Amino acid sequence: MNKLTKVGLSALCGSLAATAVNAGSMSVSGGATVTWTSLGTQETGNPLGMDSGLTFKGEGELDGGQTFSVSLVDTDKSTWSSSNITLNTNSGGTFILSSAEGGQGIGGYDDNMPRAYEEVWDTAVSTNVNLQKGVGSSTNISWTSPEVMGSKVQIAYAPDNDGAQNVNKAVSGAASNHFGSGWDIVLDLGSGSQWDSGGFNLIVGGSETKVAKSKVGGRKAFEHDHQEAVVGLTLTLGPVQLGGQVSAERIPNQTPDGIEAYGNKSWGLAFNVNDDLSVSYSQTRHVQLKAKKQSWALASDATLKSIQGNEYTPKSWMRGDSIQASWTVGGIGLSYAQTNYDNTAYTYDSKAPLESKILAVSLAF
C-alpha cells in the first residue's frame, strides 16, 4: 500500500474555520485485475477483460482515544462506487453512515460461504439471482456492538429503504415511494478458540421494511411488509473450512401471478493447502415462488363467486456449482473458477445449462 504523508484536517462552517488539534492521515490503496473468460456454449467474443480501483481512506483521533475514518471507493473507469463515515468508540461499539456499500445489516451476509475466489453467482454467468440485502443498498446508519467472546450484534436503519444514495443536502424524493423505513438486525456469533485448531461462526439476521398499503382497482396492491431473513454456519478445523447458509425474502407484491417469495441456499468447502494456495467447491440453489391470486366473478344471484383459489404454481429454481483455486505470492494473485449453472432465468422451459471459465491475475498496491 502506498501511503500519503500526514495532512492537517480542518472544518469550515460559514466564515469560521477551525484547525483540528490532532492531525489526521490519508492513505490510498488499490488494485488491478486482468481476466480471461470463456462462456462455454455461449458466444464469448473477446475474452480479455480488466478492472481497476482505488480506495481513499482518511483516519483521525478524537479526545479520549476514540477514532474515526472516512472511506471512498473509486472503481473501474473512475466511477464512484461507495463510501462510509465510521466512528469507533472506546466502549460503545462502532457507528457507520454507509452509502452504496451494501455491506451493513444482512446485506453483509448475503453469501458468506467458504470459497477460494468468488461466489458461485459472481463468476461471469448472467443470472437473475435475488439476494437478501435488507437496508444495505440504501443510505443507512448502523451500530455494531463491541465484541464479546468473538460475538457481536449489528443494527442498521434506513429512514426510507428506496435504494438511493444521497449526496450532501439532497433527498431521495419519490425514488421508490411504496417503500418506507427499514430495520436490520444481525447476531454474529463466533468462537475463535473452542477447538485446538479451529472454531465456528453462526450468523442469524432479519430485516423488515414498511410498505405502503395502497390499493389498485379496489384491491390491496400490498398486503404485508417486505421481510427478509438469513441463517448461516461455518466450521473451521485446521486448514479446512465448511459452511452452509439459507436465506429467504417475502415479497409484498400481491398482484395476480405476482412473485410471492425468493429463497437461496448455498454451501461450500475450502481447503488451504498452504499460506499461498487454496482450493474450494461451492454449490448454490435459488428458488422463486409465484402465486395465482383469487379471481372473482358475478354469479347469477348477484353475489361474488370465487372461480379460482389461492393456488401456488410449482417452484421455479436455478442451481449452480463452482470449482475454484487461488494462489498468491507477494502482491500478485492468480485465480481460476469453473462454474456450471442451470435455468438462470427462473423459467419452466428452455433450461439450457450455462458454464464459464475464468482465469484472473490480480495486482495489489
Tell the overall outline.
globular
Structural class: mainly beta
* Shape-level CATH architecture: Beta Barrel
Number of helices: 0
Q: Note poorly predicted spans.
A: 1-21, 192-197, 215-219, 294-312
Placed side by side, the strands forming the largest sheet appear as 4-5-6-7-8-9-10-11-12-15-16-17-18-22-23-24
The CATH class assignment is: Mainly Beta
List the helices and strands and how they pair.
Blueprint lengths: L1 E2 L6 E4 L2 E4 L5 E14 L9 E14 L5 E9 L3 E10 L5 E6 L40 E5 L7 E7 L20 E17 L2 E14 L3 E2 L2 E2 L5 E12 L2 E11 L8 E14 L4 E16 L2 E4 L5 E5 L2 E2 L3 E14 L2 E11 L11 E11 L1
Antiparallel strand pairs: 1-4, 2-3, 4-5, 4-24, 5-6, 6-7, 7-8, 8-9, 9-10, 10-11, 11-12, 12-15, 13-14, 15-16, 16-17, 17-18, 18-21, 18-22, 19-20, 22-23, 23-24
Structural summary, described in words:
This protein is 0% helix and 58% strand. It has strands at residues 2-3, 10-13, 16-19, 25-38, 48-61, 67-75, 79-88, 94-99, 140-144, 152-158, 179-195, 198-211, 215-216, 219-220, 226-237, 240-250, 259-272, 277-292, 295-298, 304-308, 311-312, 316-329, 332-342, 354-364. The protein has a single domain (52-166, 175-316), classed as Porin (Beta Barrel), CATH 2.40.160.10. The N and C termini lie close together (5 Å).
Features:
mainly beta; 365 residues; Porin; 16-stranded antiparallel β-barrel; globular
Give a short synopsis of this structure:
The chain has strands at 2-3, 10-13, 16-19, 25-38, 48-61, 67-75, 79-88, 94-99, 140-144, 152-158, 179-195, 198-211, 215-216, 219-220, 226-237, 240-250, 259-272, 277-292, 295-298, 304-308, 311-312, 316-329, 332-342, 354-364. It is mainly β. A 16-stranded antiparallel beta barrel has the order 4-5-6-7-8-9-10-11-12-15-16-17-18-22-23-24. The chain has a two-stranded antiparallel ribbon with strand order 2-3. Strands 13-14 form a two-stranded antiparallel sheet.
